[in-house]
Amino acid sequence: MFSLPNGPVCFEFHPYQLNFRIRWPGLDILLRKGWLVKIRRGEEAGWGECAPLPSAGTEAPSRARRALERACGRRWEAEALLAHLQALAGPAPAAACALETALLDLEGRRRGLPLRRLLAPRAADAIAVNAMAGSACREATKEAVQAGFRVVKLKVGQDAPDRELHCLRELCATLPPEIRLRLDANRAWDPDGASRFLQRLEGLPVESLEEPLRDPDPATLRRLQETTPIALAADESLKELGTESFLEAAPVRRVVLKPMAHGGPARTLELAQRALEAGMVPLITSTLESAVGLHAACQLAAALDSLHP
């Protein structure tokens, strides 16, 4: 998907930590830690980011650090580096993502191309994004709409279903007609609870519900999807249930892909292509990384746009 540099390269990595200005719904962390990774070939350099978040499907920070230490302890020739990245994507996807992103950045700088054009020559120059506006009963949707967002994501499954549905109905009564909601349950319910919640969303401008089931499996997800016009979306379930078997089963209408959890932009784009071929719509998101990782995720989303018919 992209060419490797001629001649040996070497990596170095540097730790960072960032304070969250607000508490992120569903996460009990106020400090984000990770590493910025630099690849060097002579005077040329490229950058990537390793931001592990095990709850999002990555390895633990300790494993990520060990993987970076091994990668940064030697000089790499092209073939050995490619083989190493392929082997690393499974056990240490966040470390692999950082190394691959840095390599792509280096190659893009050499060729005078943005990352998205390395991944897909017909990549878009702009992408649509949703706002993250809190949870159903503690939301900032009005501010998101005023900022220009047309799709707003909210967490559900954090309060009693009756209360959340009441909050959602009150909210939707105030929304402009073009606004759509994406809901994320973070595996809040059993199948019956998820089905009841979906039924009671009827008539509301909800386009998708992510990870509704506490203990998901492809067959149950398929049955649940067949009962609702709302698109169900899989995130962590994709890896936990086995990426290959999940893509083959295609039990839901959407998959949420995080390059940090799947080994880098190029590998994630391949998964997105396979999801499309299976009839599922892929969406790109982040693991709350810094601007380096977010930039790569946005570039990947722009490349993905070129795959849609």
TrEMBL record:
<dbReference type="InterPro" id="IPR018110">
    <property type="entry name" value="Mandel_Rmase/mucon_lact_enz_CS"/>
</dbReference>
<dbReference type="Pfam" id="PF21508">
    <property type="entry name" value="MenC_N"/>
</dbReference>
<feature type="domain" description="Mandelate racemase/muconate lactonizing enzyme C-terminal">
    <location>
        <begin position="134"/>
        <end position="231"/>
    </location>
</feature>
<dbReference type="GO" id="GO:0043748">
    <property type="term" value="F:O-succinylbenzoate synthase activity"/>
</dbReference>
<dbReference type="GO" id="GO:0009063">
    <property type="term" value="P:amino acid catabolic process"/>
</dbReference>
<protein>
    <recommendedName>
        <fullName>o-succinylbenzoate synthase</fullName>
        <ecNumber>4.2.1.113</ecNumber>
    </recommendedName>
</protein>
<dbReference type="InterPro" id="IPR013342">
    <property type="entry name" value="Mandelate_racemase_C"/>
</dbReference>
<dbReference type="InterPro" id="IPR029065">
    <property type="entry name" value="Enolase_C-like"/>
</dbReference>
<keyword id="KW-0479">Metal-binding</keyword>
<dbReference type="Pfam" id="PF13378">
    <property type="entry name" value="MR_MLE_C"/>
</dbReference>
<dbReference type="GO" id="GO:0046872">
    <property type="term" value="F:metal ion binding"/>
</dbReference>
<dbReference type="InterPro" id="IPR029017">
    <property type="entry name" value="Enolase-like_N"/>
</dbReference>
<keyword id="KW-0456">Lyase</keyword>
<dbReference type="InterPro" id="IPR041338">
    <property type="entry name" value="OSBS_N"/>
</dbReference>
<dbReference type="GO" id="GO:0009234">
    <property type="term" value="P:menaquinone biosynthetic process"/>
</dbReference>
<dbReference type="InterPro" id="IPR036849">
    <property type="entry name" value="Enolase-like_C_sf"/>
</dbReference>
<keyword id="KW-0460">Magnesium</keyword>
